[in-house]
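The data are quoted verbatim here:
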Amino acid sequence: MINISLIFVLLYQSISKMELTFYKYQGTGNDFVMIDNRQATFPVTNVKLIESLCDRRFGIGADGLILLENDTQADFKMVYFNSDGNQSTMCGNGGRCIVAFAKKLKIIDNQAAFNAIDGLHHATIAADETVSLQMKNVESINVTPKYVFLDTGSPHHVEMVSDLKNFDVKQNGAEIRYSTLYGKSGSNVNFVEQINENTFAIRTYERGVEDETLSCGTGATAVAIAMKKIGKTDSNDININVQGGNLSVSFTPMDTIFTNVFLKGPAKFIFEGVISI
């Protein structure tokens, strides 16, 4: 005897599932699930789905998920989600990776203009695939005896430490991120050690990931500007050593503002796949 109910259940399950093509990119170890959402088919409000796709054991695995969408004023739009599934503020390495992704999709050649949550960004791709991304101007910088706080598209606490290699980034970063200093929204936290006049090593605790990541683009940008602001360097072109490689940040400092801020580094395609969601 045919079980009609079972047939309807199986039919519903097959119809309700969607095959999702995704691309994996990384920028100095900061890795992302990239999705071409120009047809607006991705369920952007499904926090649990995004979280599961970023899960390193049961999903694809990534520090975040990025949608490339149509934009009426630029080449494309970037929509960024942290690995906890929630839409977040600007991601510098993600911004560089989406530029490389747009080139792979043949949306751009070697130059791009795209909109993100913090406004319009311009970028170029060099012959060696290094992506140079223009970040937002930085105006408000809070300098204290212990730390510097500034917003480079995302909020960043910058604090110098000794013996960075053995520093407990997760524990100390979480304490600052969840402290009353930054309230409910929290802050990303960067720990810094100076290498030479224009080179700094950093390790970053990222909110939304709630752990240390191998790299953070807005964090590298924040550290470079903070070090210039407090007089640790005279250079306007700073090398930033992250756990996953090397980045550089350049800028033009003025009286109360940093302009022409550029984050430069590699953005690499890893693999492409299809997953049923």
